[in-house]
């Protein structure tokens, strides 16, 4: 089969990327510079700067003299490679085999792909339009060899689709720089007045090799398609995805369950072999009428246990509306993690926080009632009661500090302290009686005060003097006075109930 | 002759318990030391692997109930066990559990909006074998729903605690015991001023195959102590007056 290649050339890859991130830079001359041998050299110029005569490789001082008010950004090493890799991965939608062509291009092997977009010209135009819409100025061309596509993308008409019969003619009309030659060879050709490929392509090969080295012949052959050239495709990790097309549209709940079971079986097997497990999974059901029904689940720890995952899905399968029928099921592990190797305990004394059965229970609860409802607390180093604990991020999280219990803490704590009426004798003595919710409590025993200062670096306000008190019925309360006794703005509150 | 008779009666009582479906305690059962209260239970062992019901009418008694349950949990949750605490309007202060010998990070709190969700979550949690205990705070629960929980527990042998706060209806539910915990004045050992260890009047109003009664317990040094001296019996007197 005749091979077809597309070369994409990003005219201003790095500066375009800057403009995408900071749209204010559009139409402004700016350059990217990097230090080199004690001076600043320009490594990339924006389109506006290029129009004013600046080019890469100039000294920054010269550029500043030519264009006053020139903006300069620091060069980020490897930025181009990173950007091209990202763009290359994006182009995998057009072809399975895409390669990065440093410093400023991409190469796509598009053999057999173009007809899916309705022909070669619409295909290439689609790519160019999409990249332009992103904000990248590109030149692109399609030809029979990598060398030809590369040359035409940069030196020919952009968006050109060159067939095999006209390819040689087009290449011959291009300047020698289109052949990806080294600077010395190019300047030599320039010196000899060979301004077009056609002016030396017909020369004897032995003479060319003697004069310019083997590289010129090699590149010429590659451009003319006489020599095969390979590209090194970017490898994209295949997603953890399984598809199940159905011969007949599925209408029943049983059918959906069977489909899910099959998908889980194959995908779990694959994940198990790779030592991975589901963290989130998405089941898509493509309906005959073109709509897509989706359900997703999440787990608290990576799992490839089919039965457990099926149970998580089970509750949600009801929300799938088959309508006229489902013709395709796709199950994807949208997030997969390494499975911690489960160690079998010899004596199963019960569940622990990190047991699998407990994690599975939490998964079921999370999927039914939501993760916000489920909390686990860890101690935090604060004396302020409301801040003395924090929510744990996961079941496996360990405590970093110990829980304190040297001071009395109530069993029940009101979320917001409630004001109470109190009669307290002398400063810093516990109250004699207090009224809470219309009921009078006479205090028989008391402990305190325990002063807890407000953490001024977190919030402002008065300190609290806590008293543990017991009334005549034996009910124990946690009261506090906010502020000093001798100041006017002190108030009494009830905050908790002791066991 | 007399001792023989009492032996026969004891043996008969044991046989009756077996016939009534009350399993004898096995080696795996965690024995909760409740002091004198243990005598009220069949075989004199705190029944684990079933449902216990607690009733409270005021937040003070909810706090006392919480303390008492935490005391029970400290034995049930030995060696890194976990428990699930489910409620709709939780005011429990997690760090306080440490006073009863529980690591609060071993407790999973589930805070929900509706009673229906609480019941579903309780059932799911009770079905999970190996959990030390499941605590559910509820207002009302009907008999049928409590049967569901009881059935779940019979299979998984998890201990469940239902705290009924301000129950509108005093209906019977499927539970091994119905408790009422109310606070009692504490006392420091040698008449020192200040508040002592938490003390409660523990009332067992119903026990399956057991003997109901009232006891005074104190949580001191990580275990329950039965108070026998200086009987105050305030709650009982109050109850009689009402009755």
From TrEMBL, chain A:
Matching CDD domains: PolY_like (cd03468)
Record key words, sorted: DNA damage
DNA damage recorded as keyword: yes
Highest rank taxon of the organism: Bacteria
InterPro entries linked to this entry: DNA/RNA_pol_sf, Rev_trsase/Diguanyl_cyclase, SulA_CellDiv_inhibitor, UmuC
Domain called UmuC: residue spans: 21-72
Pfam families the UniProt entry points to: IMS (PF00817)
UniProt family annotation: Belongs to the DNA polymerase type-Y family.
Protein name according to UniProt: DNA polymerase Y family protein
Species: Chitinophaga hostae
From TrEMBL, chain B:
Gene3D superfamilies referenced in this protein's UniProt entry, alphabetically: P-loop containing nucleotide triphosphate hydrolases
InterPro entries: ImuA (IPR017026), P-loop_NTPase (IPR027417)
Protein name: Error-prone repair protein ImuA
């Amino acid at each position: 089969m005749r091979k077809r290649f597309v070369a994409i050339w990003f005219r201003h890859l790095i500066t375009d990327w800057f403009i995408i991130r900071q749209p204010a830079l559009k139409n402004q001359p700016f350059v990217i510079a990097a230090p080199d041998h004690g001076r600043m050299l320009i490594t990339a110029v924006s389109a506006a700067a290029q129009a004013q005569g600046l080019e890469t490789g100039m000294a920054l001082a010269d550029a500043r003299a030519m264009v006053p008010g020139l903006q300069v950004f620091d060069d980020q090493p490897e930025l181009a490679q990173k950007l091209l890799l990202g763009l290359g991965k994006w182009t995998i939608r057009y072809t399975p085999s895409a390669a990065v062509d440093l410093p400023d291009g991409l190469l796509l092997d598009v053999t057999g792909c173009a007809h899916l977009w309705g022909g070669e010209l619409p295909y290439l135009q689609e790519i160019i339009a999409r990249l332009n819409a992103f904000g990248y100025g590109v030149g692109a061309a399609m030809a029979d060899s990598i060398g030809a596509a590369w040359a035409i993308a940069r030196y020919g008409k952009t968006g050109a689709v060159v067939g095999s019969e006209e390819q040689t003619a087009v290449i011959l009309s291009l300047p020698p720089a289109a052949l990806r030659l080294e600077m010395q060879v190019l300047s030599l050709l320039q010196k000899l007045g060979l301004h077009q490929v056609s002016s030396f392509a017909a020369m004897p090969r032995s003479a060319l090799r003697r004069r310019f080295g083997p590289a010129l012949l090699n590149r010429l052959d590659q451009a003319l398609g006489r020599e095969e050239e390979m590209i090194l495709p970017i490898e994209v990790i295949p997603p953890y995805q399984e598809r199940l097309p159905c011969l007949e549209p599925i209408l029943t709940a049983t059918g959906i369950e069977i489909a899910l079971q099959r998908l889980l079986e194959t995908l779990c097997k694959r994940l198990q072999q790779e030592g991975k497990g589901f963290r989130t999974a998405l089941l898509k059901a493509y309906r005959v009428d073109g709509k897509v029904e989706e359900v997703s689940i999440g787990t608290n720890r990576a799992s490839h246990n089919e039965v457990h995952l099926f149970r998580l899905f089970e509750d949600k399968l009801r929300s799938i509306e088959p309508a006229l029928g489902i013709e395709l099921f796709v199950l994807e592990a949208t997030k997969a993690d390494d499975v911690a190797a489960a160690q079998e305990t010899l004596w199963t004394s019960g569940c622990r926080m990190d047991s699998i059965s407990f994690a599975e229970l939490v998964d079921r609860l999370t999927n039914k009632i939501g993760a916000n409802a489920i909390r686990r607390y860890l101690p935090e180093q604060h004396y302020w009661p409301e801040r003395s604990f924090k929510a744990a991020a996961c079941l496996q999280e360990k405590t970093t500090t110990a829980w304190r219990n040297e001071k009395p803490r109530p069993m029940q704590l009101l979320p917001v302290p409630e004001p109470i009426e109190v009669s307290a004798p002398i400063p810093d003595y516990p109250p004699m009686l207090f009224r809470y919710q219309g009921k009078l409590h006479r205090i028989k025993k008391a402990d305190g005060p325990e002063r807890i200062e407000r953490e001024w670096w977190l919030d402002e306000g008065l300190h609290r003097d806590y008293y543990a008190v017991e009334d005549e019925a034996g009910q124990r309360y946690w009261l506090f006075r906010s502020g000093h006794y001798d100041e006017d703005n002190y108030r009494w509150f009830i905050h908790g109930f002791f066991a | 002759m007399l001792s023989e008779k009492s032996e026969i009666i004891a043996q008969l009582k044991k046989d009756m318990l077996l016939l009534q479906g009350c399993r004898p305690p096995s080696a795996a059962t965690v024995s909760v030391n409740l002091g004198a209260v243990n005598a009220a239970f069949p075989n004199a062992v705190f029944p684990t692997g079933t449902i216990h019901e607690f009733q409270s009418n005021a937040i003070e008694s909810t706090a006392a109930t919480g303390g008492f349950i935490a005391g029970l949990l400290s034995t049930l949750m030995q060696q890194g066990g976990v428990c699930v605490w489910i409620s709709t309007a939780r005011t429990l202060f997690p760090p306080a559990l440490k006073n009863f010998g529980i690591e609060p990070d071993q407790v999973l709190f589930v805070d929900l909006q509706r009673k229906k969700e609480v019941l579903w979550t309780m059932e799911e949690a009770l079905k999970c074998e190996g959990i030390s205990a499941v605590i559910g705070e509820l207002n009302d629960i009907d008999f049928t729903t409590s049967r569901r929980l009881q059935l779940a527990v019979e299979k998984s042998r998890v201990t469940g605690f239902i705290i009924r706060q301000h129950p509108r209806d005093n209906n019977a539910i499927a539970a091994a015991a119905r408790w009422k915990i109310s606070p009692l004045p504490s006392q420091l050992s040698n008449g020192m001023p200040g508040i002592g260890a938490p003390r409660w009047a523990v009332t067992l109003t119903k026990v399956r195959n057991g003997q109901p009664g009232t006891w005074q317990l104190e949580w001191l040094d990580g275990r329950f102590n039965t108070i026998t001296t200086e009987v105050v019996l305030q709650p009982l007197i109050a109850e009689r007056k009402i009755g």
